[in-house]
Amino acid sequence: MAKTSMIERDLKRRKLAKSHESRRAKLQAIIKDKAKPAEERFAATLKLAELPRNSSKTRIRNRCLVSGRPRGFYRKLKMSRLALRQFGSEGKIPGLVKASW
User: Fold this and answer.
1) What is the per-residue pLDDT across 56-95, written as a single tens digit (0 to 9) for each?
2) What is the dotted CATH code of the domain comprising 62-94?
């Protein structure tokens, strides 16, 4: 089980990223538009730098919903390989059979 603080930190980052998503997109569009004057693009860069770092989507870490494990994560199921194996062995995931030979 991951530390509760790490799970909470990731949830905080997700919330911040969602709240600042539209503002970041607008500023990044201004920065990438080469038709705009350099001063305006530079001002947009400074405004983007003023936003919280944790509001960036790249700082979000995929974590297992069951255990909070950051590695061995299946995006489709939103859980780690260990939780998937445990639930599969218990018969909680329909159609999943543990391989054994």
Assistant:
1) 999 999 999 999 999 999 999 999 999 999 999 898 999 8
2) 4.10.830.10
Structure-token pair, residue 76: 């489709």
Inter-residue contact 87 to 65 (CB < 8 Å): no
Place of tokens 């939103």: 78
Instruction: Give the tokens for residue 14.
Output: 């997700």
DSSP symbols for 8-74 = HHHHHHHHHHHHHHHHHHHHHHHHH-TTS-HHHHHHHHHHHHHS-GGGSGGG-----TTT---SSEE
pLDDT higher than threshold 80 for residue 100: no
Domain extent listing, the chain: 1-61, 62-94
